[in-house]
Amino acid sequence: MEQQDFFLRGLSANVKFAxxxxxxxxLLLVDSHYQVLNVVRDVVTVGLRPLQSVATAPVAATRWLGxxxxxxxxxxxxxxxxxxxxxxxxxxxxxxxxxxxxxxQLKRLFASAKSLQRPALxxxxxxxxxDPFTRKxxxxxxxxxxVLPGQVAIDDQGVLGQVTRVQSLVSEVxxxxxxxxxxxxxxxxxxxxxxxxxTGQSDTMEMRFMPVNVDLKPGDVLETSxxxxxxxxxxxxxxxxRIDRPGSLMFARIYCAxxxxxxxxxxxxxxxxxxxxxxxxxxxxxxxLKSAARKQGVH
Length: 299
Prior knowledge:
6-stranded antiparallel beta barrel; 6-stranded antiparallel β-barrel
């Protein structure tokens, strides 16, 4: 009866554990020496690969999504930082370019001051005049710097204007483009004298009271004649841009562009010397003219 129970129950669990453990050790030893299970292992690995991929897919997807979100956040932060840096660099570059232009203009002004061989004072334009219909600027030089009304303001290219009002710390300069300002000039090519006046526009001047057949052409340079004793002779003022010769009028319409940078730069030169000329003689009265006419009639 006990023998029948043994065959019905089979081996006990402990015996099975011992047998399978021994078998595992034998297989490990045999495989370690003879590599007999490599083929079986490869087949099992290939067969289980799809199941392994499916089982690890949620973990891999979660990890990829997390990396993507972190990467996007890092990229956005880096992009914002680069944008801020670009704005800072752009501002610094514009400031550097502005400083380079100012430095270049100052060098040209120094060279102009030396070439003029006249005492000159450097000035800086602080702000424009309050009246929008005039062309005037305020500079940082005044009577404390021995600036006087009537002195000429120039830059490295030509005449800018004339000092018209002086205070202790600042002065007012009326530009050549002011509509109420005139400059006695002569044509550099022919020596023809005339008067050029401002029009109130920063890029246009007008040469007035010239006959229709005047010897002028676009491109002619107009320079100060020095006749009035205010502007030294030979300073460039304007360049002829257009000439209208209407047959129905007595005078030609001659348009010019100022040579000096009247609306661009901040620095200028004030010429400190003033030309002294004898006073203008008094004009004869009406009675003197009549007396002179009678004397001529007698003779």
